[in-house]
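Dear colleague,

Following up on Tuesday's group meeting, I ran the structure prediction for the two-component complex that the binding team flagged. I've pasted the input sequences exactly as they went in, so you can double-check that nothing got truncated or mislabelled along the way. The structure tokens for the whole assembly follow below. Feel free to forward this to whoever is handling the docking comparison.

Inputs:
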Amino acid sequence: MKNEDDGEMAEEQKKKPCRFWIWALSSVFFRLILISFPGNLNLSSRPEVSTPLTSIRRLAEGYWLKQASMSPYAGSMYHGSPLLLSLLGPLTVQRIKGQPSHLLCSLVFVVADVLTAMLLRGIGQKLQMAYGLNARLLGFLKSSRDKGILPCGDIAALVYLWNPFTIVSCVGLSTSPIENLAVVVALYGAVKRRVPLAAFGLVMATHLSLYPATLTIPIIFLLGYGLDAPPIKLFLQTKSVENQDRSTSDVSKTEAKLKQTTRVPFLWKTVLHFVFWVLLWSLCVLVLCGLSLIKHGGLEEMFKSTYGFILSIEDLSPNIGVFWYFFAEVFDFFRNFFLIVFHVNILFMLLPLAIRLKHRPCFLAFIYLTISSILKSYPSVGDSALYLSLWALFVNELVDMKFSFFLFCGYLGISLLSPVMHNLWIWRGTGNANFYFGNAIGYACFQIVFVVESVSAMLNHDRALKRCNSKNSREVKN
Amino acid sequence: MATEKRDDKENEAVKTDDGSPKIKPRPIVQLGIFLIAHSHVFSVVFSAAGIMALLLLPLLAKNTYISENALMPGSARSMLSHRDVSDGSKLVKDIKNLRLNHEGQGVEVQRLIGKYMSEMGAEVYYQKFHPEGNQFHPLHFFSGPDSYTLLGNVSCASYGVNVAGIIRAPRGDGKESIVLVTPYDSTNGGDYEALSLGIASSLFSLLARVTWLSKDIIWLVADSRHGDYRPVAAWLSEYHTPSFKASDLSKCDELNTSHSFRRAGTMAAALVLKVDGRSERFEDTLSIFAEASNGQMPNLDLINVANYLAVHRQGFYVKVEKVVSLLSSTWLKIVGELFEAVGKMAHTLNPDWNFGIPAADYLEGSATLASSLYSQALGIPTGPHGAFRDYQVDAITLKVSPRFSPDNTARQHEFFQRGAQLLEGTIRSVNNLLEKFHQSFFLYLLTSPGKFISVGVYMIAFALLVAPLPMVAASLYIDGCNALTKATHNPAENLKSWKWLDAAKQVLALHLLGFIVTLLPYFICQVPGEHSPTNRSIMWATTISSVLLITCVTIPGCSPFSSRLHGTNWAVLKSVTISAAFIGLCLMSIINFATAEIGALLLVPMCLMVRPIKPDLRSRSVKSLLRSLCSMVLVTIGFPVMFFAICKGLIGEGLVGLSLGGEFWTWLESLWAWKSATYLYIGMVHLPCWLLCLCILFHPS
């Protein structure tokens, strides 16, 4: 019986990766097909896809300026990293005859997407193992096989690859696939405890889009405390119960492991190691940027037109965020005040969330990314693509999330409504900016509901574990 | 829409609250629970109210008013002199002579008009264009107008020549202009059509010498040999997006047109003038056409100005199009009389309540409203003014029908004077504008030239009609989820709040199918060789059915008729279907209200009524049999081809079998040729929802 079961399991295990690869490959093919019809889709000019920071057309412009030995930031066209300019810039001018322009760039983005998905899969496998281990330690999962556990790595990777938002931002030639890749590299490095890699990812992600700087906190938690786990109190309870009936039960190997985890040592050494690497990589990046901009105003110019541009919200062209409308309306003498208020919004939320969710650093990273993609100055659907796939890493914990269908319908409706409203405003002229902004508000509301529900589902999950645990312990006592 | 979503949210709050500790819900949540619990009653009430509100719309129409103060219509005295009018008469006479002398000489008439224009002091140029039909670009719907590109090599056999003259405004800076269009078919245009040239030339002669112009005037004589719309669209696309490739057409004729195209800044408004047919009434008749592509309308102020001047200054009888067959319909008359009686009764109760209108007015209003809805829903422009709307220029077509025969030169003079004065007044009003039209409504329906229904009123009817959808979806979702929880005992497989995923997969698959179906005609038209519409429709039908079959066979989970019992529960499937229909209809109501309204009238009852037919037939009670019959009938009517046939039948053209297919195909082809969003709606919302309803109807439960 057991052998049969095992055989089935093995077969299933063999089948599953196969199916995963089929789906992953088909998503790549789908992208390649879409890339070959760029004229029909015209995605790269859509405000939902390309923002002033991520648009490839601006990047090409910046590269052209640089080739003409001018500062790439001249004329407020390009606002990205000078490193990206050196990497992607040559590809924007390369044309293969008979092929659509920017083909090489598209291929780079496809590769970036695939890499991101693979790293997500790696993270997910690690998280899945941790989930199984914890569940066994707490005594919910009796058998050694993780039968009820969903393969969250595969799910997250497929969610990333097949998410229409990801596909659109990949085909629409925005640089967000590369930003997303940097973020996922940071998380992957932290999860796998490869400190230099984590530091590199974090530094690159911050360099590219500033907001991932908030990820420093979850990464430090990840390196210091280890992977996501239920609150430590539960383990203590379990341990006490097990201590009581140690006489009856065998001293298992898990006991030894448990002892290690109960103390929760904060690994200062690793964290210091991480800080050292962050400093080293930042130095590298700054030196490289300085070298590439040595004739055009140096680093000061770069900070002013990348981070300064992000923070002072100079470009008020419409996007799916809520800032452009507000800062188009606000009086000039209040502008600085509101800039501070709006940016502090993100910072305010960092600390409370960090305290409440410190036992789940990966989840914390997901929440930070979601919040920053709501309150970003130039958000695009690429950001949503990233946090939605990170969310899929926690399918096991978030199985009973509320409003799932409502949120799904909302995201669907809003993402279809957005081009319609834009069309009404820009092309038909029968609508106005309020139409598109109303859509942006709706989108922000759905995102907020999504975050709130995710967090509350996670906390409920912890509570449910606690309730179960206390019930178990009472049973044992009796 | 927001309120509905909110309802939905409330509903879900109720259903997912099972596990958490019981707290007394807030009043709004309680309201949500109440609505869901009685969703059957409320859906009937709301749908009935929606249809009722639609019938009430003619009653709720308001009188139009001029919203932009700068327009000041009719405040200045007309400066049209007899000399101007005789200029116009002379042009008409010359054209007639020319046509009598040499027939079929295409360019001669244009040259004559050009000569007249330049004599009046205008800059004249000619534009050659190729009368090519619209290309089908299914994905271009959300972007702006395409630049007009010539495909392949162009033959000189058929092309048109537009003549345009520009009068530079003495007080303007050349950055704004007003366009006057007179379509004229130089080879086989009737005598009536020449009259429009007479009016326009009288006006042009006046405008060439007035001092008050602050916007340039462009007079475009569009060569309407190949339809009205195409020449205007070609001229507009050259005006806005010039093509820098040397056109092959320039070699075709001795008329040199290259490098002569001139522009005059942004267009503030455009007026299309047509004269045709003899008026059936005692007065001269002026018909106003305003519907552009996808139900877009010009700013209401433009219609108001033209209407005001025509009625109060020039004494035209102004009308907008109406569905004539509705005027004699008995049931509408009864409804009108009912409303009249209610209005009278209300008036006796309280003299301040004056909402009743006479039954005859009601009949007229609803006939006009029906026509307005129909032409907006079709999404095909009703005249050359539609081309302007694509460039955000407000434009209307004024079609004048004189009450005399074209040979009567004595009356012609007076007719020219009145027509030119009407146009002069309108142009003078538009000339006063400081900004583009923005004050008045863009979203409205007309019930008579002087009455309109604004978006805020007609949206109520639609909102009431679709309001049951989220309620019923939520209540079904709760039922379905409870049933599924009972069915599965394995806690590991029990994804608590994700039970809708299977149903969503199926819905998504069918919508994908709808997308493919929508794109198919594009590929079918690429098939080489000439095919009749009937053949094409057969090709289309076979491809669709094969695709459907392949989907069913290859993806067992997505198969609509799969017999797997543990698959999807029909209640959840119906709930997801209804949500999809709701999203689709709400989206469509923003793109094109009229399509959404008509679509909702078909989709909402169908989606609400449909249930698996098997258990109903098994139970054999009268009620359930009646219910299954009802849903069968609704699903039959809901099939687009069927609905098309019924509509044709109502008009009086009975169609059966293959000719119906061909007819339907031609209709669809015309829809996509005009880039109508209705086409996308039928393919991507209506058809998938209909298929899903079919799946539910034959669900093996």
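The interface with chain B takes residues 40-42, 147-148, 399-406, 408-410, 412-413, 416-417, 419-424, 426-430, 442, 449, 460 of chain A (CB under 8 Å).

Cheers,
M.
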